[in-house]
Amino acid sequence: xxxxxxxxxxxxxxxxxxxxxxxxxxxxxxxxxxxxxxxxxxxxxxxxxxxxxxxxxxxxxxxxxxxxxxxxxxxxxxxxxxxxxxxxxxxxxxxxxxxxxxxxxxxxxxxxxxxxxxxxxxxxxxxxxxxxxxxxxxxxxxxxxxxxxxxxxxxxxxxxxxxxxxxxxxxxxxxxxxxxxxxxxxxxxxxxxxxxxxxxxxxxxxxxxxxxxxxxxxxxxxxxxxxxxxxxxxxxxxxxxxxxxxxxxxxxxxxxxxxxxxxxxxxxxxxxxxxxxxxxxxxxxxxxxxxxxxxxxxxxxxxxxxxxxxxxxxxxxxxxxxxxxxxxxxxxxxxxxxxxxxxxxxxxxxxxxxxxxxxxxxxxxxxxxxxxxxxxxxxxxxxxxxxxxxxxxxxxxxxxxxxxxxxxxxxxxxxxxxxxxxxxxxxxxxxxxxxxxxxxxx
Length: 442
What we know:
alpha/beta, 13 helices, Lysozyme, 6-stranded mixed β-sheet, 3 domains, Aminopeptidase, Copper Amine Oxidase, Chain A, domain 1, 8-stranded mixed β-sheet
């Protein structure tokens, strides 16, 4: 195989992964050339391993002695290397490795910066590794592939931060739930969805590893992204979602993400910012992420005495998808549902007034009968509804209601809700408003 043939074989996969993930194609090709000796190395011919990646691959393990540098001294060492079924698998695995947080500075970088970043991150022990890569890129003009088809590789517009991780579990519920696991689960789902929608995105972590605040915020600052969504689960016995923005932000993105959770069935406690020292943010994810628009999203309470715990386990994917949808709308990127639903008929909305105060949420007319969100109405008069996740039963003042559940929200007829709360009810046809008055009877 000639050198041109080798480049032609590796380049399409390198360009494809560059356009999907931001790893410079020139870097991928240069590493394949250097690590595999133009595809002639023992690892390349017997294990389809072009990049010298160690471990267990999709086709198993291949053992060989390889040179290592310890304190700048070259030694020989027997190691396990990943074995692949073909070169395409090897290229894709190489890209997956560079999506690890420590290689964040590689993504979207120029070839020179990417080569230095990959050496600084410890990809190889050779102290001259970056220069060897640059030499090959410039000699064989591999940087032409970084603008293949007239498209330059995308800088990420968004970085998703799964809070906590590794030795830092975050909040822990009595039911064994750990915040770090839920954060990662939500973030990996959103990452895959954003990729499918063509939104350039990266992650601060892709596995259960611990990051210090400095490491985490450095990854965000250096990602090149414009926005950061930092995913969290709250604690403290409350109920509902919160979104938190910097004191230096207008809060529009935080409000948009809160709206996403509200429309997907989760009640929103508040959208807010918090100041620490004068003119400084209280939260380090705002204080130390530079010009990035960072929003902390608290999806619910892991120790809620109401229904958050059941909702987190049941509805996390619905909530994660709603964040994806509303973020796409915020940045002006077309959104397509993962599972398109049939178009629904228009719904007649019903406004709700409780003791002279209009609620922010609405009900709807079902065959001419006004139907209201139970939690919103009950909480407006200081009552917390009960919820049984096993039977999906909703109770108010000890009375079980006949409910329908839509997008995680329980609805019951206005008269049934009013009866359970001991309130008077009035219907105003002109404005389609349900008016509830009175004091709660227990």
